[in-house]
Structure of Elongation factor P:
Amino acid sequence: MADTSDFRNGLIIKFKGDPYVIVEFLHVKPGKGGAFVRTTLKNMRTGKVLENTFRSGESVEVIRVERRKYQFLYKESAGLVLMDNETYEQITVPEVHFGEGVNYLKEGEEVELLVDNNDQIISAEVPIFVTLKVKETEPGFKGDTANTALKPAILETGAKVQVPLFINEGDVLKIDTRTGGYVERVKN
């Protein structure tokens, strides 16, 4: 067991039965009353962020996690089939562990699973940036880079994003999986 003096950004604790990561914390010692720690916690299963105050010295359960690299093979009805890069063992992971980033995963992409001591999957992380080809969009306009007008595009994974007017079908784009936003066009 640890206590509030062990808090640091990125520490994963068990709070209300779920794994939470400490995003931010602040030790506060008011003039009157006991000291306390104000924290911002993010639920690793749902992504929900909440604020909580702990009494100074209050004990918390720290969860030890291990990061494991897997390769995304394909999607099936039960979830995503991943292959361990070291043992070549295949596992199926439900889509809920991936959040919105699952829409930007293509076959062969590398993902990381956060696994606790009991080999239970806490969460899955997709790469922050991926490169995907535009499958369908309206024709682009050459030289139209001055304004910030956007148009819809469908990527090779089926995800829909807003892109600048000069983007054409077949262009390869860099996409931010956290926001689902266009970053830049990648040279072929």
